[in-house]
Amino acid sequence: CRRRRVPLIVDASQSAGCLPVRQEKLGAAFIAMPGHKGLYGPQGTGLLLCAGEAVPLIQGGTGSASALQTMPDYLPDRLEAGTHNLPGIAGLLAGLRYVAARTPEAIGKREGGLIRRAAQGLARLPRVRAFQARNPACQSGVLSFQVEGMDCEAVGEALSRRGIALRAGLHCAPLAHENAGTLEVGTVRMSVSDFNTAAEVDRFVWELSRLVQSSR
């Protein structure tokens, strides 16, 4: 991308907080990440890391300099239009401090162990197919799966009634599903955090096994 002068934008939705995200190493012009996932912030928050100076395509509002027709040309005011989401910013800051104290490496190691435990449990279940990274070091704290003969939405709803919170469908990632060959039917996705336990993972596997057995 650099040789062609094409800005590279990295989506770090599932890696921020559990894998090291280093802009200089990735060579990305922008790295986008939500605040409510691995950074443990509130919904509606996020970060956009910029390697250089960002120039907006569309400008509006006046920001802190009300006499201007455009945004101020100095930071941080140039990027801060409208009323700030102060509760969200405070919550995201608390999450970032937690991740910084624990380190993404430590969080990723713990989440990776829980995901491997879940994957091993799913491997013992009939009709269940799990989708994992070929390199375990690249596996984030999510694991997608399908149950043969069952609609993904039905699986998610059934497990929700059993107290297991999952997401079913395409997960806002149609290109990833196209690559995995699951674009037509989607998958069910479970995820873990630094606060989940092995006992909770085992319960998820047990509840899924009960569902699979009852759907024969």
TrEMBL record:
It comes from the Bacteria. This is Aminotransferase class V-fold PLP-dependent enzyme. Gene3D superfamilies: Aspartate Aminotransferase, domain 1, Type I PLP-dependent aspartate aminotransferase-like (Major domain). The keyword Transferase applies. InterPro entries: Aminotrans_V_dom (IPR000192), PyrdxlP-dep_Trfase (IPR015424), PyrdxlP-dep_Trfase_major (IPR015421), PyrdxlP-dep_Trfase_small (IPR015422). The keyword Transferase applies. Keywords: Aminotransferase, Transferase. GO terms for molecular function: transaminase activity.
